[in-house]
């Protein structure tokens, strides 16, 4: 038999039809897939950029396999992130197995709540045009700042900003960042938890009255006792250890919020409107009173979009690698969540104002339904609606309290250099729950402070993310990007001051000042 030339034994097809990546060719005989246009244009350095096909070409197959495996390992590890060992002991970063579904559940649970039910109150002062325009601008603005926070979570290679305060410290400096971020985030978390106790306790009382009806005992529970019942339920649920462990509760909170929001506006629209209804904005006795009432109404709309103080914390529960950064599933879940948030907030605001106009009570939709249609709507539907509100308040309490639990345990672990035991963790959460209970008993009007809460916490959602983008990303000075973010940030600060003044004016005119400063 005639021998073939030796060159034919090692010949390689010049142009194979299907090119496979180099990591899938164990013999290493094929050429790597040609880089795409995006890869050619990218000049960013990565931890594995030196392990390229050009670098590997003169190296033998065994050594090439070792380097390829090392490249894959480095890419799985991620951006060579410096991990803080203390993070493994804290509730927010203790578990990092989150995903896009968890992100959607948490964002929905944090984004929809009792504050949506008072949006028609704002429309009563703003009217149709300004009410819809303000709500639309606020929604688009906060959605953009949400995207900013998601992108800034890993803006610096090798660093994950797992908490809102950490990003503020990196952007504004350690001292100034703490001063700017700690108060509004703590006030938003603790203030919302206290308001949830008040709303949840009062709704449980209404639910009991509707279900029990005329058969109620002669000595029903007082409102404060219902606060205590609701607080006890919150404390029991708060024993779940970390943020990922309450994903099921967030799902329940999201489903109940969507359900009762839909039920509230459908029940209102389906009933006959009051005969004296009017859609003219409420008139005030003086021009200054009109300005302050409008500012308070805008503060109510701003408060409807709370929850940005939890964005980085939710993203911190996800694994992040070089190939699969955490911002991809986070943004995917957030987009789904805010689609449903818009589908709840806009119908509640528009449908509620259409049904009641400027006759809307200051307590919001639940009070309006109970006052105008308490005898027209079947008791079963009313009871289900109120029960769903209770479930949502219980779920929202957990996610808004988690940053406070994290701060408690961070202080403990930094001093003792060991994780919290079950008893210490439970003690912290019981203490926090009853502190909020006592605040709710002492200040039972917090549920009507939506305008003031919205004004004081507005920078967390609308202003600070714009400043952080400029200070961390450092766009070219005097470029459109630079001007745009500085303008948005300072507009947010100005609105915060105006809305806070409007909220304080609303409290003073409501007689709350006289309540606490009665002459002896």
TrEMBL record:
The keyword Thylakoid does not apply. Carrier protein involved in proton-driven auxin influx. Mediates the formation of auxin gradient from developing leaves (site of auxin biosynthesis) to tips by contributing to the loading of auxin in vascular tissues and facilitating acropetal (base to tip) auxin transport within inner tissues of the root apex, and basipetal (tip to base) auxin transport within outer tissues of the root apex. May be involved in lateral roots and nodules formation. The gene is LOC111442771. This is Lysine histidine transporter-like 8. One of its GO terms (molecular function) is symporter activity. It holds the Pfam family Aa_trans. It is a multi-pass membrane protein. It comes from Cucurbita moschata. It is found in: Endomembrane system.
